[in-house]
Amino acid sequence: MLPFWIALQFLSSLPIRLPGMPSPQALGRSLLFYPAVGLLFGVLLLVLNGVLSHTPAFLHAALLLSAWVLLSGGLHLDGLADSADAWLGGFGDRERTLSIMKDPRSGPIAVVTLILVLLLKFAAILALIDGGHSIALLLAPVIARGAMLGLFLGTPYVRKGGLGQALADHLPRSPGRQVLLVGAIGCVLIAGLTGLFALLLATAGFFWLRQLMLRRLGGTTGDTAGALLELLEVLILSGLALL
Questions:
Q1: What is the pTM of this model?
Q2: Are 222 and 163 in contact (CB under 8 A)?
Q3: What is the pLDDT of residue 63?
Q4: How far apart are CA 25 and CA 169, in angstroms?
Q5: Coil vs helix vs strand at 220
Q6: 3-state secondary structure of 87
Q7: Is 162 left (phi over 0), alpha (psi -120 to 50) or beta?
Q8: CA torsion 70→16→80→128, rounded to 10°?
Q9: Which pLDDT tens digit goes with each residue over 143-167?
Q10: 39 near 142, Cβ under 8 Å?
């Protein structure tokens, strides 16, 4: 179960403490448990949604979104901010784009992007609460974290060294594809046509964003993987809110 705890420590702000530095093989296998971490997030959000059932809708949505951000520790929002700055400031140049991503400072484009993404998430959560479609709170984190696994399965990792390289090099390919298949089937079994729609929407968004990465960078980085997750969550929530 060590790979699961590695995934949970990396993807969440929960107080997980590992006994020493994991091996590269354990790091690679931890990717297999990304959808499981998403499932845990979704269950916690559904429980909180039930607890807040008599709360005014705007406050209800705001508390759910706050809990969602706190659970992830803002990790993927940071990747989204870095990617937004780099995509605009890189002017189409690969090396410049990669260099800007490494800069810890956030420019105005990053700030605007984060505001828009969080605003869209808030509005979508509010609409889903009003419409009684709380299952989206489970589908979005599961599918988006499954997409990260899919990204590392089929996309070159372009930064040499570090955690991302260990994940990419030691990810077991065949079990990874099996996890994605089981996750997709599970979403359909749990949510029916709603789950199928969310999967199709996320798949379309995934391949579009992956193509952008390949054109600009020739692959992915940790930042662009985080951006992918955040944008797919917004896409799934918004799409289901419009049903």
A1: 0.96
A2: yes
A3: 98
A4: 9
A5: strand
A6: helix
A7: left
A8: -40
A9: 999 999 999 999 999 988 767 888 8
A10: yes
